[in-house]
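User: Can you model how 5-O-phosphono-beta-D-ribofuranosylamine sits in this protein?
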Amino acid sequence: MRHLAVFASGRGSNFRAIADHARLGILQNIEVSLLVTNDSNAPVVQIAREDSIPNVIIEGVYRRKFASKHDKEKARNEFDERAVGILKEHQIDLVALAGFMQVLGPRIVEAYRFRIMNIHPAKDLVRFGGAGMFGKHVHAAVLDAGQTESGCTVHYVDESVDRGPIILQSAVSVEPGDTPEALAERILIQEHRTYPKAIQLHTDGRIAVRDGKAMIDLSGGWLERWNRRQEAFINYQAGLRNERLLESST
Ligand code: GRF
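Assistant: Here's the modeled complex, given as structure tokens:
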């Protein structure tokens, strides 16, 4: 059994989707063992508690003011150092950043090289990734640029921001009259399906990084088996949506 830690700072819908995939037996041979957050008020903490997933809060640089750049970097390094210690303690094999509002420094990136993933809500990471490109800003920029397509990307984390080797991408069409919120919502549905798939590919040893590129091995019917298993999640989500519709109409 492999052990996964999720790092998150906010709402936690990706964390929930990953935990649901594990609970439904879709993710195999990997356990969601830990949530790490840098914001004690993040709603994601409550989700972990409900699912009885151990969680730790490590103060980082998010939502904090620093007197100097030096102080901020010091706090970032302290976070990384503590996080590495906790990951070792919990024997974590893989880290998934899911709405984690803090750039990781070299200490943790080196210690977990190609064992840290991130999800970004765009496909073109050159134009719509990097510093300042988070949340609504990403979707607003995509719409402003008149793109006809966006989506999401799961990639390994390296020393850059949002530019590590790409593992998986899912495309979502931009619809006429789209708002950043509407586009974000449709992309999120894909994020919830794409992230667990990348985690399973990694766990199954199906990803090799060569010359900075991630190569995926889907031979032997991997994709068919995954799609068949993931139907349970898609049906579960459709059930939840129906429940919400019923609730709002009564
Ligand atoms: C997602 O859109 C993810 O792509 C981005 O931050 C958002 C997190 O959402 N990195 P949630 O907290 O998982 O709901």
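A couple of observations from the model: The chain has a mean pLDDT of 97. The pocket of 5-O-phosphono-beta-D-ribofuranosylamine is lined by residues 8, 10-14, 98-99, 119-121, 188, 191 (CB under 6 Å).
User: Helpful, thanks.
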